[in-house]
Design goal:
With about 120 residues, the protein is mostly helical. The chain has five helices and two strands; from the N terminus they run H-H-H-E-E-H-H. It folds into two domains: about 60 residues, Arc Repressor Mutant, subunit A, CATH 1.10.10.10; about 40 residues, no CATH class. Helix 1 crosses helix 3 and helix 2 packs across helix 3. The longest helix is centred in the last third of the chain and has 22 residues. It is elongated and about 55 Å long.
Length: about 120
């Protein structure tokens, strides 16, 4: 699975994992019906506590992104709403704008930075 945790990030690890899984589901990289790794397996792969992964799966289930299928594990559902991802992107853009303003970076430099990041993400 294409997720990574940045231990030096100020964003809590459960939130990093939750948002990455939401993006993978919304983008279709984890289509409906995909079985997610077991809690124990994903926790071991990422070096996290099982309780952290369990919390993430529970949050995703509460928001309709996944469903617990008993002994069949946790399964991806349809994307509940693009509004969640839109809000996350808007918040990230506002954070970028604030950091750029605080550092005195001009619009052209911010645009170049964003274009480079978009190129790296492709």
């Amino acid at each position: 699975m294409l997720v990574a945790i940045d231990a030096s990030s100020p964003i809590p690890v459960y939130e990093q994992l939750r948002s990455q899984l939401q993006r993978l589901i919304a983008s279709g990289q984890l289509p409906r019906g995909t079985r997610l790794p077991t809690i124990r397996q994903l926790a071991a792969d990422l070096g996290l506590a099982s309780a952290t992964v369990s919390r993430v799966y529970e949050l995703l289930a509460n928001d309709g992104w996944v469903v617990g299928a008993g002994r069949h594990g946790t399964v991806v559902q349809d994307v509940p709403s693009t509004g969640v991802l839109d809000a996350e992107l808007r918040q990230a853009a506002q954070h970028l704008a604030l950091l750029a303003h605080q550092s005195g970076m001009n619009r052209a430099a911010v645009t170049d930075l964003l274009e480079a990041a978009l190129g790296d993400a492709s």
